[in-house]
Protein 1
Amino acid sequence: MVLGEVMKQTGDLSLMKKLNKALVLELIRHESPTSRARIAEKTGLTKATVSSLVTELIDANLAYESGAGESRGGRKPVTLLFQEKAGYAIGIDLGTDGMTAVLTDLNGTIVDERRKKNNNRETLSAIAVLGSCIRELMDSAPTSPYGIIGIGIGIPGFSDEAGNVLFAPNLGWENVPLQSLLEQEYNLPIVIENEANVGALGESRYGLAKGTANLVHVSIGAGIGTGILLKGELYRGASGFSGEMGHISIHPDGKPCRCGNVGCWELYASENALVDAARKEYEDPDITLDGLLEKAEQGEELALQLLEEHARYLGVGLINIINSFNPELIILGGRLAAAEKWLSEPLQHFVESRSLPYPRAKLDIRFSQLGDRATVLGAASIAIANFFASPKLSVE
Ligand SMILES: [Zn+2]
């Protein structure tokens, strides 16, 4: 619906008030501590309008005042702060071998966390463990006016708008109505979103990508997912299935992939690909990523070679991304970000020697500093954004 239609239907005054209140709340959220005078200056609203909207927000427990009555001597202005403890969100990263779940306040600060190992390829068991994470975090949440405001879940696959997991190849899930199952159980708003998309949001709100408008987040785990942020917005494609760069074929006669293609990038550059190569070279079926990185730390030649080779495979895909999207920033996230020390230099070198100079000119390639928390934070941030966009918070 376009704005003009809304205005005709609801009347200008009520809509204007709603928009202004949302604007004032947004300033208090993002610029806290602030003041009524500053808000009036920034929005162009009259001081009387700002004051009345702020009073409503204070009554709604979303803002509070500080500084009043503390003055000794000269008059101190009353500071307005966002009440980030007015409610709590849950963010979950559903992986193949386990899950991470966090409870955050409305600013996205983590107040509690659960990590559980589980074979999530078994759908029923995965849903049971998801449930226990949710219940434990709900129980541990401090008492607050709005309670738990919603749950965001990042999944390694595709979902539709109703939150059905349509296809998650590395989980082996097809058509799982995850959102409706959880909504029935917990009676809370639930959002399901691709984990690389969620990670891109997490990086842009809380990580290295703050303020970056054109970003590609490459999440490297069991597979490779990419979340693409263009002009500050997630690019989802025509039906929400964009960003499957992990299935760009880098080898026309390569290994067969579960997606139906052969030679997909993730078969060569994911964490699984690196661990498989290490198992083969070391003739040790139990070696893990941590085990390999320990060997590299000790300066073992074979481990260093494996990581250098892996950087080249990563680079091949990154060059495709750079030439396609001309991003300002590529963030490499997921568990493989822990290997930054060994991957970074050969990767930068490979990319510099092979990508087109103009798309690369203003590009920065960085490893996530949020580690595997980009996904949980991004998932919680979607739940928080939905809460602030919900009609419950608008004016009567
Ligand atoms: Zn594939």
Protein 2
Amino acid sequence: MPLTRRAFLPLLGVIGHAQQPLTLHPESLTPFLEPLPLLPVAKPVESGPVPRYRIAMREMRVAVHRDLPAVRVWTYGSTWPGATIEARSGQPVSIEWVNQLPTSHFLPIDHNLCGAEKTNPAVRNVVHVHGGRVPPGSDGYPEAWYTPGHAETHRYPNGQEATALWYHDHAMGITRLNTYAGLFGFYIVRDDFEDRLNLPRGAYEIPMIFCDRSFTPDGQLFYPDSGQPNAPWVPEFYGDAALVNGKLAPYLEVQPRRYRFRFLNASNARFYRFEIPGLSLMQIGSDQGLLPAPVPMKRVIVAPGERVDLIVDFAGLAGERAVLKSGPTELLQFRVAAGKVDDTSRLPSSLRTVRRIAESEAVTTRELTLGEVDNLVAAPMRMLLNNTHWAMPVTEKPRLNSVEIWSLINLTDDSHPIHLHLVRFQILDRRRFDAFAFRNGGGLRYFGNAMPAAANETGWKDTVQADPKLVTRIIVPFEGYSGRYVWHCHLAEHEDNEMMRPYDVLPA
Ligand SMILES: [Cu+2]
């Protein structure tokens, strides 16, 4: 299938800045030339009851496409993206995260951002396992960064159900640059319950990381700036090249049978609308584990930070080809082998019980605004959570083992993927409201009925699409550990500009 010029244009937004240097046009590159790279599994340096890993952050050069020169990236370990951590529920691991990066950054730091002041080193890193139920000292607090030449060991108890988590950089004020440079990988938790379902596994289970990038004319990573040398921050990044496991438009040879695909959106700001024309995507899981039952989807919308777990059956396409798309963008070509295979995997009609939490179990309801612009005069604009800056006193202090409802009141025209560290939660509903009345002190006045969570959102989540002009309600059991964590927008540019707040889980 030819790749049209349109296929690589930004789908859900454009970079609205005047002075961008010319970038390479990825649509001029031939698609589907190279196989999808399969992510390696990380090997512990020490086994035993608590396997120990040692993973270095390093600069390396990688082949993104046959016709591009080797691209400078920052990664974990010796591949890009980093190797997958394979963990078992209830079996802790420890990881020594070693910082071996260079001491200067190759992307534009904005020293006006909180935490990125000139007095701080340019290269600073800290690793967060997104979705992990982890004690506060190992969670990767944004201010707990360290510099090249240093290492930190984090302990991950893995006291949670099987799901696909991911690890990535979280350093205050430069997370968007560090993750754009390439600092991310999968962290998959497995358990006996899931094993017994006999879902496709081994060669038939394929984790894929999606991220969009742009390239300079000489084929290196391009990240835009605002045009103001002293304030280069841009509000959102949308690249014109879609990479899967670090490759531009690769292909994957598959058998005519069922596959399990674990998708992660590791982009800074792009939402994906995954579809494979001609095939149904059976969604079996979301951020924090299996859904109650498979949900057939024509299209699955995945925000930055979110993961989806999909079963795709190629049995009806033997000898044919299919394409994974997001809007008009062609992400990956499937080449289905001819003939028939004996597929012994199963897709059960019910998966895992998800007890719905009753609203009556909540002890507190918090009304929290998204994206109140705190400064209408001076550029750049800034979006805040609950109109509070990072450094202001902590306002969200749930008690350990209590349940709260958080009403996320989106006053902006953007969908913000809101992520809470430590916890898993359920989506209650979304509802239109009178933003004008709200801004003028009239409180929450709703329009129309609440829209319940979609079928593919009825499992456990750790990131929720808080859509524009809606109140999105989530119900959150604060379980695991007490201590200081963060909650934030997962659009990396927003997160770096203080759309992030600390929160405290108080002892029970
Ligand atoms: Cu945001």
